[in-house]
Amino acid sequence: MKATKMAAAALVLLAFLTMSPQVRSAADCNAVASSLMPCLPYLMGSSSYLPTPQSRCCGVVKQLNWDQACKCLVERLHNAPGWLNVAKAQAIPGACGLNLDTKSCS
Q1: Contact at 8 Å (CB) between 89 and 73?
Q2: In this structure, what are the phi and psi dihedrals at residue 22, rounded to the nearest 5 degrees?
Q3: How far apart are CA 60 and CA 32, in angstroms?
Q4: Across residues 79-106, what is the average pLDDT?
Q5: Is the dihedral of CA 96, 52, 90, 22 positive or negative?
Q6: What domain of life does the UniProt record list for this protein's source (predicted)?
Q7: CB atoms within 10 A of CB 95
Q8: Are 53 and 96 within 8 A, CB to CB?
Q9: How far is CA 104 from CA 16, 63, 73, in A?
Q10: Residue spans of alpha helices (H) in 49-103
Q11: How many CB atoms lie within 10 A of CB 33?
């Protein structure tokens, strides 16, 4: 049983390491998007509804690697669903006290 788990873990690691950069980048962006789930109540609302992110959201935002997360945020906002407040998403680092302009990410 233990050997089976080790073999499965090794296969997963091998698959990850051999992924193309584009696929790995998409997987990384999925991880960033998943980590921002505590921010959804803030990102879904208008400016008058939840005018500032909750502390749990900001805790996640402050822990993200923004070199990667910023690019993912910009990429994902191009195809954002209508219920997502794009202006709030772009401003979320600043709303959480970080000095970061997501509009300049590339």
Answers
A1: yes
A2: -65, -45
A3: 10
A4: 85
A5: positive
A6: Eukaryota
A7: 17
A8: yes
A9: 30, 20, 11
A10: 55-63, 66-77, 86-95
A11: 13
DSSP state letter for 31: H
Percent of the chain past pLDDT 90, that is, above it, reads 21
Q: pLDDT of 11-51, one tens digit each?
A: 333 233 333 344 445 558 888 888 999 998 888 876 666 67
Q: What are phi and psi of 65, to 5 degrees?
A: -80, 100
Count CB-CB contacts under 10 A for residue 43.
Answer: 20
Mean pLDDT of the chain: 74
Q: Which two tokens stand for residue 104?
A: 């300049």
Query: Which residues lie below 8 Å from residue 19, measured CB to CB, with a gap of 6+?
Result: 27
Token digits for 41?
A: 């109540």
How far, in Å, CA of 95 to CA of 45, rounded?
Answer: 14
